[in-house]
Amino acid sequence: MMEQTMQRRLIAEVANAVVTHADELTTLDQAIGDGDHGLNMRRGALAILERLDELAAQPLPDALKAAGQVLVMKVGGASGPLYGTLLIALGKALPLAPDRDDLARAVGVAIDAVKRIGRSDVGQKTMLDVLGPVREELASGGPGLVDRVRRRGAAAADATIPMKAIKGRASFLGERSIGHMDPGARSASLMIAVACTVMEE
Amino acid sequence: MANVGIVIVSHSPKIAEGAADMVRQMVGDSVPLAWTGGNPEGGLGTDVAAIIAAIGRAWSDAGVAVLVDLGGAETNSEMAIEMLESSRRDRVVVCEAPVVEGAVMAATEASGGATLDAVRRTAEELSPT
User: Domain limits of chain B?
Assistant: First the structure.
């Protein structure tokens, strides 16, 4: 089972990174969306931090489900239900003491839940274009996995720049969505990178 | 049986309220009606908790049709429906229709005692798909 101090750091550092990068996410979203992604994610992260003691004390699956509920209720944009569903589904699919195979499988289940609620799929310039490749990397195993997962997430976010948006507000721009990183892909890669760094230590 | 209820969800509280005014002008009090708009801080956006509350206010045993504007409103409305108690969940639908026209058409259909399916179909006839 994940140590409580580790779990607390994981939650706190991911949430703090979202707060720190809120302006960056907003700037990305202003380019191709409605410009609220940073504000919404920041609102959700602050709500998570308010409940940090409670979330750190719960078993990991329960903490993920509870954090997901907070995001669903507090974020306000589409990212709330999407990230909220991701965490809730992840919490439901993870055993108490997950190994890498458990995690890869649970992430797959969680991604399917996000696809369903967002009626979206990989290739549409969304957070799924980071989550999909990250799951693939995670499932591949082998040495240096955590670092590879982090780099795969970052590369996958960069790879949304030349994509044309097919889902979400950015899809209204059609061709003009090309040339900008998807804000949801960026927030996903940011949170994954911070989680990887905490896990490495 | 009571008439189907209508819920209007917009990123903008002004649009949601205005659309609800237009519905009332058309059908009076014959249809349970509620609207919600804005994020939890009052800015533009939508709020799952507020949508759940609006579905409660417009509740009818015949069901509730939800009209939404843009993507986030739809995603949040579907999330809100998933979070309803199981006895209600299957009696709420999100209509794929323009929010103002869809709400007025859906309410007009509902005021004649139409089923939830018929109300949704009427609203969705407005959507070119």
Answer: 5-124
ipTM of predicted assembly, 2 dp:
0.80
Helices A79-93 and A60-74, axial angle in degrees (round to 10): 160
Q: Is B76 within 8 Å of A81 (Cβ atoms)?
A: yes
Token pair recorded at residue A161: 């720049």
Condensed to tens digits (0 to 9), the pLDDT of residues B74-128 reads 999 999 999 999 999 999 999 999 999 999 999 999 999 999 999 999 999 987 6
Per-domain boundaries in chain A: 4-200
- With CA atoms as reference, the chain A residue closest to B82 would be A117
Is residue B70 within 8 angstroms of chain A, CB to CB?
A: yes
How far is it, in rounded angstroms, from Cα A154 to Cα A60? Answer: 25
Q: Which of B44, B46, B75 lies closest to A117 in CB terms?
A: B75
C-alpha distance from residue A133 to each of A129, A148, B19, B88 (Å): 7, 11, 42, 37
Give the nearest chain A residue to B11 (CA atoms): A77
B78 and chain A in contact, CB less than 8 A: yes
Is B40 close to A36, i.e. CB distance below 8 A?
Answer: no
d(CA A69, CA B49): 11
d(C-alpha B70, C-alpha B74), whole Å: 7
Query: What is the CATH superfamily name and number for domain A4-200?
Result: DhaL domain (1.25.40.340)
**Is B70 in Cβ contact with A82 (below 8 Å)?**
no
Candidates A34, A80, A168; nearest CB to B48: A80
Q: Distance, in angstroms, between A77 CA and closest chain B CA?
A: 6
What CATH code is assigned to B5-124?
A: 3.40.50.510
Q: pTM, whole model, 2 decimals?
A: 0.90
